[in-house]
Amino acid sequence: MIWRLLLLSAGALAQDSCPPWCAKFACDGSTWCQKGEKPAPCVHCGDGGEAKGVSCFKESCADVGGDCCAPPQLNEAMKCTNGLHPVRLHTDCFNFKGASYTCCGSLPTTTLSNGVEMPKVILGAGGSTWMNVDKTDLMVYNALKHGGFRAVDTANHYRNHEGVARGIRSARRDGYEGEVWLQTKVEGCGNSKDPRSPVLQGHCYEHTLARLHDDLRQLQVDRVDLALLHAPPCVPGAACEMVQQQWKALEAAYAQGKARAIGVSNYCSACLQCLMRVATVTPHVNQIQLHAGMGSADPGGLVEYTLGLGAKIQAYRPLGQGRLMSSSTVHDIANAHGKSPAQVAVKWVVQQGHTAVTTTESIEHMRSNLDVFDWDLSSAEMSKLSNMAPPGQLDNVVGELCVL
Ligand SMILES: NC(=O)c1ccc[n+]([C@@H]2O[C@H](COP(=O)([O-])OP(=O)(O)OC[C@H]3O[C@@H](n4cnc5c(N)ncnc54)[C@H](OP(=O)(O)O)[C@@H]3O)[C@@H](O)[C@H]2O)c1
């Protein structure tokens, strides 16, 4: 009967203001409680729950376990029911949807144009673990089991799919029960330095499908959450045709259920224009290098162009490959908030509504990189970070990489 008491306490909370550790309640698709605001009435509950005045809780917690019905016990010093470190991420706090319920380790998501929910911070496997299966295995294991992450970005080009698969498997074996968002990338046709890769003009469609199937096999999954084209083909003269063939291949894989969402990476506006001429599915994501210190929040206008299509931005290298850690501007802003420079850098990305793809092998850094959702940068700080000088030499900037 403890859950009845807890529901009563939660109901009492709802009538005053929302609990401070929870950003919102979701009820049948509508938000009824915003942090610091009075809750709005909610008369119908999804998931078979019943409306309880203004609250929407399930009648029974049998399927979620007693602890899951204990939101009032969760606070800044909460102990996690799922064994994760208590990162203060709040969007799912009162989500009474089975065992995934917890205030700890549940990551805020953004909704793609096809309705799929994509985590807002993703662990990249393309940094120091590049081409190193054992290091990748350990990083992914630590990220899921101890670091609070539940999303991994990899690529055919990183040559570490086996490590990603091993890391996920061993985390699960050791009790990790949460979801894993898994995304990978197929190289641009003709871009591979792999000697096995033929010159692909004319065979780009088949090559793209074959590579993606190979990736799924290596990752030991039937489908990924997101499949991306890693970069536009660097084949002057033929690039647009290859872009179109690659995109048709990803669309086919999407239709076959091999990916829950599809997108591109390092695609400039001209590349997207070329793709859109044949697309029946608009890319859900464009993953580009984007971080504070690029002289603008939207270098070259690509962010606006991408968002205008209805695609989301995934910002890779949100810490400028670690270079932002030595920026005095970033340090000053971090000190003003009692946060670390890395947190400020990640915050600059997510506060704009983008997703950050960042790498670290350190569990401590993983945890702190996720702890960016219950505080805000001021608009003056945001523009200072946008406009500041680049932290050292930038490479891979979209536009310079594109050949269309
Ligand atoms: N699509 C593409 O073409 C493309 C290109 C590049 C990257 N990516 C993706 O983006 C991911 C991230 O890129 P990235 O690794 O180049 O850059 P990043 O995430 O901006 O920076 C990573 C560096 O920051 C350090 N770091 C991380 N968290 C920190 C913290 N809390 N405090 C201090 N230092 C911290 C890491 O060192 P420690 O290990 O010491 O923490 C590492 O040296 C890649 O792994 C890959 O998945 C995609």
UniProtKB/TrEMBL annotation:
GO MF term set: oxidoreductase activity, acting on the CH-OH group of donors, NAD or NADP as acceptor
Entries under Pfam families matching the protein: Aldo_ket_red
CDD domains in UniProt: AKR_AKR1-5-like
Domain NADP-dependent oxidoreductase intervals: 123-386
Keywords: NADP, Oxidoreductase
Family label: Belongs to the aldo/keto reductase family.
PANTHER family assigned to the protein according to its UniProt record, in alphabetical order: 2,5-DIKETO-D-GLUCONIC ACID REDUCTASE (PTHR43827), NADP-DEPENDENT OXIDOREDUCTASE DOMAIN-CONTAINING PROTEIN (PTHR43827:SF3)
Name under which the protein is recorded: NADP-dependent oxidoreductase domain-containing protein
